[in-house]
Design brief:
Elements: H1 2-15, E1 53-57, H2 63-73, E2 78-82, H3 88-100, E3 107-111, H4 115-119, H5 132-135, H6 141-146, E4 148-149, E5 152-153, E6 156-168, H7 169-174, H8 183-195, E7 202-203, H9 209-218, E8 224-225, E9 233-236, H10 241-255, E10 259-260, H11 267-274, E11 280-284, H12 287-293, E12 305-309, E13 322-330, H13 337-346, H14 351-359, H15 368-371, H16 374-377, H17 389-400, H18 410-426, H19 431-448, E14 452-453
Parallel strand pairs: 1-2, 1-3, 7-10, 9-14
Antiparallel strand pairs: 3-13, 4-5, 6-11, 6-12, 6-13, 8-9
Helix pairs in contact: 9-10, 10-19, 18-19
Length: 454
């Protein structure tokens, strides 16, 4: 009974998951509403019909090119790709297939923070035995940790989101401000800009819980501890002093009017970015692609943005953090797990696909063959007016990132954090109170689902 409640918690987290990337075409028919993973449903054309086929779900915008590259180059297996939607659309269909015991693909594209949610349901395969040693050196320690649960590996890293501070060069020049290297300097610069009649220095939003969590981790927080060897136990520590300090910091800036509190990823927020309402944008390496697609950095907005390393809490002990990232995982319904793992390891790992991904700002690559290539490192990024942003900011941040441990009920935690940050913004709680309430809420939820909280 206890185990069933834990699985139910994972199901709830999966079915309520939010999207993080742009959606694509939907798969499935009236007779096959969940887009069951059978080879006849391929979006792509399989050129080598005499080879075994591995089915795959994924939503990257250039997936057609990636799959075609793989099938052209591979003489052992072919990929049948279907886009059943992205984020929650895909996860809902995967959850339906898990419950039914059929209908899942052999390989699935999944955001890294969702891996424990599906792993606890035994719906993903540990691929460490299927060629991990062959590709281990192609990715950083932090990238592998993000797709691992305990010592087991449940995905192959593809893209990530090392964090930095995007800023408006025109506003920094107008108000004589240099990029802050610490969060104390960030607050001082924000006050200077406000005193001079300038706009908000940044934004503290309730709807970006993953960002808030990352900044707390940068301050020393370790929100969760989870090991599949003891699946009924979970460590939850959301009200440590570092977490409280981060919430109090941003609440103070918001109360003083130094930063806005507009929800991000909205037309209103993007309009503010375009019109110079915010001097900085704390985000990840995928942000330039997202902002460009949203209309930022075009027309009169061209050439006004630059990027600097993420400010640090303790410059003597810098900590790099990550926001977002996806991987390819092998599902427990895979007909041939070893063959499926070969696809997961090799898909989006060839030079042509990786180059297309980063040149078109679709992914920030985690494969070190791309991440550390001279072409990528020395790229003069158009969005940043020709700045070598990868060399100066993003690549060092990615290489220094150590990874983190996600929880098997991550979406509930994100929703609960959003609720507390909303209250913090409204002024009904302090940062310390918000952290304590979050701890109480998430611990109660974990216990209700059958976990022993440590």
């Amino acid at each position: 009974m206890k185990k069933n409640r834990i699985i139910a918690a994972a199901l709830l987290a999966a079915t309520s998951a939010l999207a993080a990337c742009s959606s694509g075409q939907q798969a499935g028919t009236a007779s096959n509403p969940s887009g069951n993973a059978v080879a006849s449903n391929c979006t792509n054309t399989i050129p080598k019909k005499n080879l075994p086929v591995v089915t795959m779900w994924g939503w990257y915008p250039n997936m057609q090119l990636v799959v075609d590259n793989f099938n052209k180059q591979n003489g052992e297996v072919q990929v049948c790709w279907t886009n059943v939607g992205q984020g929650s659309d895909e996860y809902d269909k995967f959850q339906t297939a898990i419950s039914a015991g059929t209908g899942a693909p052999d390989v699935i594209m999944i955001e890294m923070d969702r891996i424990p949610t599906f792993q606890i349901q035994k719906s993903l395969v540990d691929i460490k035995q299927y060629g991990y040693d062959r590709v281990k050196a192609d990715y950083s320690e932090g990238a592998w940790k993000d797709v691992s649960v305990g010592q087991a590996v449940y995905g192959v890293p593809v893209d990530g989101g090392p964090m930095a501070m995007i800023y408006r060069k025109d506003l920094f020049e107008k108000y004589d401000i240099k990029p802050p290297k610490t969060w104390d300097e960030y607050e001082q610069a924000a006050q200077k800009m406000k005193d001079a009649g300038g706009p908000h220095f940044g934004d503290f939003a309730a709807n970006v819980s993953a960002l808030t969590m990352a900044l707390q981790i940068q301050k020393g927080a370790s929100p969760f501890a989870y090991d599949p060897a003891q699946p009924e136990k979970v460590g939850v520590k959301l009200n440590d002093q570092g977490s409280k300090d981060v919430l109090d910091y941003w609440a103070r800036l918001a109360k003083k009017g130094l930063v806005g509190t507009q929800d991000q990823f909205t037309p209103e927020y993007i309009s503010g970015v375009i019109n110079g309402k915010y001097a900085t944008y704390i985000s990840a390496a995928w942000a330039p692609g997202y902002l460009t697609g949203a209309g930022v950095g075009k027309g009169e907005d061209t050439g006004k943005f630059a990027v600097a390393p993420l400010p640090q809490w303790d410059p003597a002990n810098p900590v790099q953090v990550n926001w977002g990232g996806s991987a390819f995982s092998v599902t427990s319904q895979a007909k041939n797990p070893e063959l499926a793992a070969k696809v997961a390891y090799s898909l989006y790992a060839d030079k042509e696909s990786l180059t297309d991904g980063w040149t078109n700002q679709i992914i920030f690559p985690l494969n070190l063959k791309a991440l550390n290539s001279p072409e990528f490192v020395n790229l003069k990024v158009a969005f940043f007016d020709g700045q070598q942003a990868n060399k100066e900011v993003y690549v060092p941040a990615a290489n220094a990132y150590k990874g983190m441990t996600y929880s098997p009920f991550g979406q509930y935690y994100f929703d609960a954090l959003t609720k507390q940050v909303s209250a913090l913004i409204e002024g009904s709680v302090t940062g310390a109170q918000a952290a304590d309430r979050l701890q109480e809420d998430v611990v109660k939820y974990a216990k209700e689902q059958g976990f022993t909280v440590q």
